[in-house]
Amino acid sequence: MKRRETLLAAAGAFVASGLPATRAAHAQAMPSVKMMIPANPGGGWDQTGRSLAAAMQAAKVAQSVQFDNKGGAAGTIGLAQFVNASKGDPNTLMMGGMVMVGGIALNKSPVDLTMVTPIARLTTEYEVIVVPANSPHKTIGDLVKAFKAEPGKVAWGGGSAGGTDHILVGLIAKAVGADPSKINYVPFKGGGEAITSIIGGHVAAGVSGLGEFAEQIKAGRMRALAVSSPKALAGIPSLKEQGIDVELGNWRGIFAAPGITPAQRDALIAAVKAGTDSPMWKESLTKFGWDAAYLPGDEYKKYLDEDIKRIGAIIDSLGLRK
Fold this sequence. Notes:
Layout: H1 3-16, H2 21-27, E1 33-37, H3 44-58, E2 65-69, H4 76-85, E3 92-97, H5 98-107, E4 117-132, H6 140-149, E5 155-158, H7 164-176, E6 184-187, H8 191-199, E7 205-209, H9 210-218, E8 222-227, E9 249-256, H10 262-276, H11 279-288, E10 291-296, H12 297-317
Parallel strand pairs: 1-2, 1-3, 5-6, 5-7
Antiparallel strand pairs: 3-9, 4-7, 4-8, 4-9, 4-10
């Protein structure tokens, strides 16, 4: 057995013995980790992946981490590369989440999340709807009124087609009596591109996780109109509080390569758990406004199977699938 596989198997044995995950992972640090982030820099997956990597290094369960950003098609371009290039490699990880579930369903992707190994769900985050600072839309009511009057003239900017952002706009349309199939939705490959377009007024409104736009809102370059949480968040009123009966949370998680052994999977779960137990990870949760939603291994796989069905049904009900 190769040395790195021996290290990982040993860490898995520590977990099986019932010792705390942090101690197990600390005892056998992983060598260089390769992390696929299937999106361009600056977005939620990029923030989450790099925050997790930093936390794992701080917890001394990863010696170094190399990143590969590969955006496009709701993460399915990066997913395909990960599946094809990483089979059996116990030192590779990939970010993913609800956006990818929706994108796979909408784009009829030939690769899907059954082809990788679920390690852990990490976070949930509510969405925020913003407009440029100089927008004539002062409230979500103003935006919805313009949208209902001429749907095609109100461009909504967000992540990949079929992802969480797109689904939220569809749910809003349905809730206010507009036709979801007439949404003018502009997908962006990464958070940086979205921010530039929203601030520049190239779209009427933007949708993303609150953490992605928090700095722009604070700096006054964007105006936040509503969040998709049950109640107000960060001083921003919720859609429900403003008469739009919509609530939606976006989860993100981490996956390993196909074809790894159970011991290698368990060692990765232990290493990720050690990272999420670290003070640095907790600081990231606070900084970006994420809620901890840790769910490991088999529990994560069960959740994923259920979410694939749930998101597919929402996309069909909104008429988004072509």
